[in-house]
Amino acid sequence: MITVSEARKLISDHSRGNREEVLPLIDALDRALSADIVSPVDTPPFHQSAVDGYAFSYSDWDKKVGVEIAGEVQAGTVYNGHIGSKGVRIFTGAPLPSGLDTVVMQEKVELTGGLIMIRDEMILAGSNVRLQGSQTKAGDIVLKKGHRMTPASISFLASLGIIQVTVYALPRIRIIVTGKELVQPGGHLGGGQIFESNSFALRSALQAMDITPVSVEIVADDEDAIVHAIQAALDADLLILTGGASVGEYDLVPSSLERCGVKKVFHKVKQKPGKPFYFGTFDNVLVFGLPGNPAAVLSCFYEYITPAIGKFTGRQYQKRLKMILAHDFQRKPGLTQFMKGKTKGNTVFILDHQESYLMNSFSHADALVELEEERDVITKGELVDVLMILI
Amino acid sequence: MITVSEARKLISDHSRGNREEVLPLIDALDRALSADIVSPVDTPPFHQSAVDGYAFSYSDWDKKVGVEIAGEVQAGTVYNGHIGSKGVRIFTGAPLPSGLDTVVMQEKVELTGGLIMIRDEMILAGSNVRLQGSQTKAGDIVLKKGHRMTPASISFLASLGIIQVTVYALPRIRIIVTGKELVQPGGHLGGGQIFESNSFALRSALQAMDITPVSVEIVADDEDAIVHAIQAALDADLLILTGGASVGEYDLVPSSLERCGVKKVFHKVKQKPGKPFYFGTFDNVLVFGLPGNPAAVLSCFYEYITPAIGKFTGRQYQKRLKMILAHDFQRKPGLTQFMKGKTKGNTVFILDHQESYLMNSFSHADALVELEEERDVITKGELVDVLMILI
Predict the structure, then answer these.
(1) Beta-carbon separation of B136 and A353 below 8 A
(2) Helices B198-207 and A151-159 sit at what angle, rounded to 10 degrees?
């Protein structure tokens, strides 16, 4: 049985390269750029007034006489007349007429006839002007490969006139849920049956990363049916199975995967929950066999599958932090344990009801507290490793 | 001119109640419940084995003789025979036959003929059994009104057989972008023109909250056109306008809103960027008039509009934290300033290029650092208020 850090490394080592795709800018939120962005234009594209006021030539300004105002220029228009040593009324965002270099705010002039007297002790040549190219110059690299597209990034690239970007593609993911005891919610529970919930967990966790699985199949514990479902799913980038991952007579997933030519990388990890966790590959397909217990499914998803998806999409979805444990805690050592936790500032609480079949506490968790194999007694105030799970 | 905290309070005071809607469970990710959830069933729905092993009656167990095995029970099946004082082979998740109360793991028995000898010093009555109702009992309140639906919450409710939930609805939002200098990205820039980017900022920031605006209209600086657009938009819950919010001759938004019967609550806030920020109401419609500068648009959105949407959806989207400033900083006091920041652990850096027309630094920001009106000199290591903006 391998350790958690060995399992992490093996999955990372087997994760293959990612694909690119071109998206309309407005559809690129939260995606990572797969290439640098070069600005096609200067921004601002011209010398621009930063305020409502009057533009003039600083060197031509005669403080005793003032500045004669020849006309006005709004945002979105240009002043076409000959300006000479005169000034213009100007508004925020409007281009400075050629030959003018300074703007005085409207609150700081006296206007008499067609003339302004400037009453601004602080004014300098170039005041209140946004110079052409002061944000970007055509040809500049403005965002780098790997950059996560935030709303501000999208607004920024729009302001450069960019309408599409090249980003890392989302992986194609297929899900196979196994178990003959499963009934879809809304159905009627017969003897020994329970409601199927793992497909809901996985679909929602993927949705939080903007990923819709290509398929979600529910299969009974029958090896031929499982083999058939796996064969149809080996065109994905990631295949996730739940249930039947252990070594009992009815744990048919590892043997079915073998029948389909999937190469086992490891089976079983020194962890709780999720000890029977299986990982294998088929060409470039990453195959994850998760146990059937709901809490184990989500723990393994957050601990292993989210980082694997992140390698594909060029994103880091989760923060790993050190936090202060808010209370004493004691447990039997031997396995790395992922415990449902709730953070508050820099502290974290380990929630009650940690058994792998329980989801009531997981519903309130925003983090997994990771206790290393040999850590058994923790005193209030000690630091613990925390994986933030709400994206 | 009012202060930032007065502006916040006025917006909060004018925010009206929210609507509810019923959604399929799988579509409820990240929504807040508008009513408590009551479990319709016991979970587990029966006494269930937690392991692969052998079930027996603890009180009938004769340690010298061992336990005779009468048959087997898989997950998803029930044992229908008469069990008497015998035991059964049992698998994880399978129901215990009536009369049996304890399970021994398969690794801890010796099987000879049809008989097992139990070699487990630690076994107690009830070991390795998940009791019926030990997670939820029918009639229990299992999630409370206001709860945010995480992937784990969705999985949990699926396991109770629940297929739909009542949540707070998303608000209907309309956007009007004004400015005659604006050209859509992909078009050709004429003299004095710039690319329109504010609709991209607002659409993306809303998308991060799973909200698609009902409409996005780009209107030139013409009062009749603006009035017409506003009149058509007053059926929304929130109306957001950008540009023309100041008091110049071409700042037509406040006067147009007045012509449409919108009641001004405030206009201008002691803040930077976004001093000309306008807020008004029309019946239950909240109307936000943002300045045209891109950085001011997003700052005002994150500071004021996100919390207003949160009142509608019952969600708190952002964290407000105290963080350590990573460097010395100095500025002219007088206005509350929202500065683009980048966090690293518990520290925050104020980015370069803070002017309201610049978006290059905002592209890298994950936080806004809020400096109160009179705060001018800050020494490295001092605490500052931080609003986390990436959802």
Answers:
(1) no
(2) 160
